[in-house]
Amino acid sequence: MNKLKQILTLLSCILILSATAIQKEGQIFAYNISNIWEKEIQQSPQDSIPQDISFKEGGITIVNTSLLGKDVYGYANQVPLLIFIKDNKIINIKALQNDETPSFFKRASKLFTKWIGLGTQEAKNLKVDVVSGATFTSDAIIQNVHLALDLFHKQEAISKKKALISKKL
After folding, report:
1. Average pLDDT of the residues of the chain
2. What's the CA gap between 107 and 137, in Å, rounded?
3. How far apart, in whole angstroms, are the C-alpha atoms of residue 163 and residue 105?
């Protein structure tokens, strides 16, 4: 009978600790429980996004890092972004569908505001620190923004060279 009491006490302690961990962090044993009950919709639907690496629409260059950053991983998987550039300034950054834990991604996505409104060269040179508690996701966001800006600058250089060549002809 005494052993039964000990086992029940131990199980009660485990249940209380588990409930506290779920309540506080939304996860237990590194498994996210919180998105079972509520699914945050913070990413754009992937179906309507062109899969081109970069395209222009209404004077806005949109760089899609899905393929460009295929080797860039956050905590769970890739963290593809759309970077919107107009007149050499970043006007918006949107996340595409990813497998990051929504609560951690929400924290890390606050980094977007660091680049929005900056010129592309200024944004490229900006030193952005990762968000504590969402380090891998933050690092993937930073890498994807840099990849997008590198591609944008290469495309701009090619466009300028083409314009010079056509002027000479």
Report:
1. 82
2. 9
3. 41
Angle at alpha carbon of residue 79, lines to 69 and 131, rounded to 5°: 115
**H helix count then E strand count, the chain:** 7, 6
Residue 90 DSSP SS3: strand
Q: Choose the weakest-confidence range: 19-33, 95-109, 152-166.
A: 19-33
Residue matched to tokens 């990413």: 43
Nearest to 52 by CA among 71, 80, 77: 80
Q: Which residues pair with 89 in a beta bridge?
A: 86, 119
How far is Cα 54 from Cα 123, in angstroms, rounded to an integer? 18
Asked if 40 contacts 106 with a C-beta cutoff of 8 angstroms, the reply is yes
Q: How far is CA 112 from CA 33, 70, 167, in A?
A: 26, 20, 38
Closest CA to 105 of 21, 22, 53, 35: 35
Per-residue DSSP letter, 26: S
In the chain, pLDDT over 70 holds for what percent of residues? 80
What backbone torsions phi and psi does residue 20 show, to the nearest 5 degrees?
A: -65, -45
Check if the beta carbon of residue 43 is closer than 8 Å to that of residue 98.
Answer: yes
- The pLDDT confidence band at residue 41, using thresholds 50, 70 and 90, is very low
**Residues 125-138, mean pLDDT to the nearest whole number:** 92
